[in-house]
Design goal:
The chain is about 45% helix and about 15% strand. Strands 1-12-11-10-13-14 form a 6-stranded parallel sheet, with helices on both faces. Strands 3-2-4-5 form a 4-stranded parallel sheet.
């Protein structure tokens, strides 16, 4: 068994990119709090925003009855927006009330929003002031989740990037796995790395503050998400080195990601094959069940999650689909270059969005499946087109071998549903 990944004769790394700068349809960065607050068990995310921000978070998270969530909203009222009240004094009171009621909090994130940025509320300075007041028990960190200039996965990138300057220094030779993964997925990845003899392995973000990793010149970073552009840049400023690899989506992507790590830490091919052979076989078998539905079908990606390029690689190479257009909010070739190398030449690669023009291209192409945000899915469904919500791909465990079948199934399901509805309509 080879661990080499076959590369197409011509990939998309050097393909012309259609750059669009128009009206966009994306969720805002506040949405990232929903998976981040579940990951960091002694952290709290306090959004400084409007009632609209609060409603968005509540809707995205669902109704939590049996547990108090680790996020909330400090509501900016009309008097705050009009400058009739001191927003900093009110924020200090809200933080004091929160910390007195929740002594378990060790990290408090002040999350900027569109309203707080419009009134120029300096949350960075507020975080410094509050850290001095509550240290060492609580560290207060600021990042922006504003939807004015960001897509929703940039919320996680901004959060992790804000954490990097405060990470302790270390000279230890280590692997730092970066990106918020569900606990079960992270455990699977750590188990594979451990079986290969790779140690120590740290995670950012850590589940608890006392497990916060250090960083330094001997830190090797393996990104698990393709949208962590600012986080990667901040880690490099601290001396860390970012591994260049495809992302662990599907059997092929997971194998390539693990092999890049294995080569860095001197794992031989025989050991690598022994550890990965069984899970690779399970992943291929699980993907094959969905390929019966996906094979030969076309897919069109609207820019939304920044997962689009790795997912296009997965669907075309492992599921037999044809990509018509792969739209993504931003393209950082230092990070997604290995994915573009594997994505065969052919689809339009677009960066940014002019939603009306892209809708025209999508309607003209009539793809079998369109991956897009919620705001576009219902209108396209009404026009008879099958869609997949991009946000579901972030909320659902989809990384590494054991989730490869679930990832393929997410794309196969809307096509099966469409076929079933068409059959019922024909029978009627």
């Amino acid at each position: 068994m080879t661990v080499d990944t076959p590369v197409p004769a011509r990939g998309c790394r050097d393909a012309a990119v259609l750059k669009e700068r128009g009206q966009r349809e994306v969720f805002c960065g506040l949405t990232g709090i929903i998976w981040l607050h579940r990951k960091m068990q002694d952290a709290f995310f306090l959004v400084v925003g409007s009632r609209t921000c609060a409603h968005l978070l509540q809707s995205a998270a669902g109704v939590m009855i049996f547990a108090e969530p680790r996020f909330g909203t400090a509501i900016l009222e009309e008097k705050d927006l009009a400058g009739l009240a001191c927003a900093n004094e009110e924020l200090d009171r809200e933080v004091e009330r929160l910390l007195s009621r929740r002594p378990d909090i060790r990290q408090l994130f002040l999350v900027g929003s569109c309203p707080s940025e419009v009134i120029k509320l300096d949350l960075h300075r507020a975080a410094e002031r509050l850290t001095r007041k509550y240290a060492p028990h609580v560290r207060v960190i600021n990042f922006s989740g504003s939807g004015i200039e960001t897509t929703f996965t940039e919320g996680e990138d901004a959060c992790l990037a804000a954490m990097v300057p405060a990470l302790p220094d270390t000279g230890e030779r280590q692997l730092l796995m970066v990106g918020a993964l569900p606990d079960v997925v992270e455990d699977q990845a750590l188990s594979l790395l451990s079986e290969m003899g790779i140690a120590p392995v740290r995670c950012l973000p850590a589940a608890r503050t006392d497990k916060t990793p250090g960083v330094g010149e001997n830190t090797v970073v393996a990104l698990t998400q393709p949208f962590l552009n600012e986080t990667a840049a901040h880690l490099e400023r601290r001396g860390a080195r970012i591994l260049s690899a495809p992302f662990p989506f599907g059997e092929e992507g997971t194998t390539a990601w693990l092999w890049a790590v294995a080569q860095e830490f001197g794992v031989d091919a025989e050991t690598f094959t022994r550890v990965t052979e069984a899970p690779r076989a399970r992943a291929r078998k699980a993907i094959a069940a969905a390929t019966e539905t996906l094979g030969g079908k076309s897919v069109f990606f609207f820019p939304d999650s920044q997962l689009e390029i790795p997912l296009a690689r997965f669907l075309t190479r492992e599921c037999g689909m044809t990509a018509v257009e792969v739209g993504t909010p931003f393209i950082n070739k230092r990070i997604v270059g290995p994915e573009l190398d594997l994505l065969a030449e052919g689809p339009v690669i677009s960066e940014g969005q002019d939603v009306d023009r892209q809708l025209d291209r999508c309607r003209a192409a009539r793809p079998d499946l369109t991956v897009c945000g919620l705001g576009l899915a219902n209108p396209l469904e009404a026009e008879g087109m099958a869609t997949k919500w991009a946000i579901e791909l972030v909320f659902t465990p989809v990384h590494f071998y054991e989730q490869a079948g679930d990832l393929a199934g997410l794309f196969a399901r809307p096509l099966r549903r469409r076929a079933l509805l068409s059959g019922l309509e024909g029978a009627a």
